[in-house]
From TrEMBL:
Location of the protein in the cell: Cytoplasm
Native species: Salvelinus namaycush (Lake trout)
Protein family per UniProt: Belongs to the sulfotransferase 1 family.
Name by which UniProt lists this protein: Sulfotransferase
One Gene Ontology term from the biological process aspect of the record: xenobiotic metabolic process
Length: 288
């Protein structure tokens, strides 16, 4: 591990010092994963906050109390962040956590456990756009530079948690069998209700039609944007400046089309295609 300005470098991955420390990574490495634990794993800007809203509601049968009273970072904490050591012991069972770790960096006790994983993937072009705006509003991250400069950083993996392709490939090759459920952000945008049904089956919950409707309604973009426990408005302005961009920014699929030039699109597509070559992983956005 090393220091690099705003970041800690953990196994070659850049992670913000604001929320991570050497101790927090050690804590994550030593955690005793329980069979009932549920991890939502994402590459940053792929729908983590959305899942921090959804998973507790699916687990508790649609009781809105936790999502209306507990900030998302304590409700479903990040495994590798400093808050984990403070709140993990207080989580109800089954414990729900989020993580941006690639598969091989999960805690050793995760692998032999029966803990489940929900892995959310998002079109990397939209991930990059979302991250670009996030870097502008978050004072604890480096300035992204121009869009073109940030695109090059993204493609070379000089961004939070490294290359998108490495992250996705690590979890697609995870060998976790029925312990892992793959979801895309785009499916959630298109058919949240359908995703909730898949999720509740995966988590062994039998939710009524009425409950599924209530959860879907509560977790739509416009409602989450109003929820102070989830929209990051509790974070001081000097750390996250909502006048530059809001955390819940647009919440759509395909915003990259408003940002990429044809040349940037061709370059991005070519690099991703080359790096995903031979994996047999197909995504809904591949044909766009
Ligand atoms: P945009 O910046 O494209 O709007 P993460 O939580 O992993 O950091 O991801 C943040 C992205 O998820 C942001 O994307 C945010 O708006 C989007 N998001 C969060 N909640 C959402 C919801 N209920 N519906 C749609 N998108 C949501």
């Amino acid at each position: 591990m090393a220091n690099d300005g705003n970041y800690i470098v953990y196994h070659g991955l850049l992670c913000p010092k604001e929320t991570h420390s050497f101790e927090s990574f050690k804590y994550a490495e030593e955690i005793k994963v329980e069979d009932e634990d549920i991890f939502t794993v994402t590459y940053p800007k792929s729908g983590t906050t959305w899942m921090q809203e959804i998973v507790p509601l699916v687990l508790n049968g649609g009781d809105l109390t936790p999502v209306q009273t507990i900030p998302n970072w304590d409700r479903v904490p990040w495994l590798e962040e400093t808050r984990a050591a403070l709140v993990l012991d207080r989580l109800p069972s089954p414990r729900a956590m989020v993580s941006h770790m690639p598969y091989h960096l999960m805690p050793p006790s995760f692998f032999p456990s029966k803990a489940k994983v929900i892995y959310v993937t998002r079109n990397p072009k939209d991930v990059m756009v979302s991250s670009f705006h996030f870097h502008k509003m978050a004072s604890f991250l480096d300035d992204p530079g121009t869009f073109d400069e940030f695109l090059n950083k993204f493609l070379s993996g000089q961004v939070l948690f490294g290359k998108w392709t490495d992250h996705v490939k690590s979890w697609r090759n995870s060998d976790l069998g029925d312990r892992i459920l793959y979801i895309t952000y785009e499916e959630m945008v298109k058919d949240l209700r359908g995703v909730l049904e898949r999720l509740s089956r995966f988590l062994g919950r039998d939710l009524s039609e009425e409950t599924l409707d209530r959860v879907a309604n509560h977790c739509c973009f416009s409602n989450m944007k109003l929820n102070a426990m989830s929209n990051y408005s509790l974070v001081p302005q000097e750390i996250m400046d909502s006048s530059k961009s809001t955390f819940l920014r647009k919440g759509v699929a395909g915003d990259w089309k408003n940002h990429f030039s044809p040349e940037q699109d061709s370059k991005f597509t070519a690099v991703l295609k080359e790096e995903m070559n031979g994996t047999n992983i197909k995504f809904p956005w591949d044909e766009e």
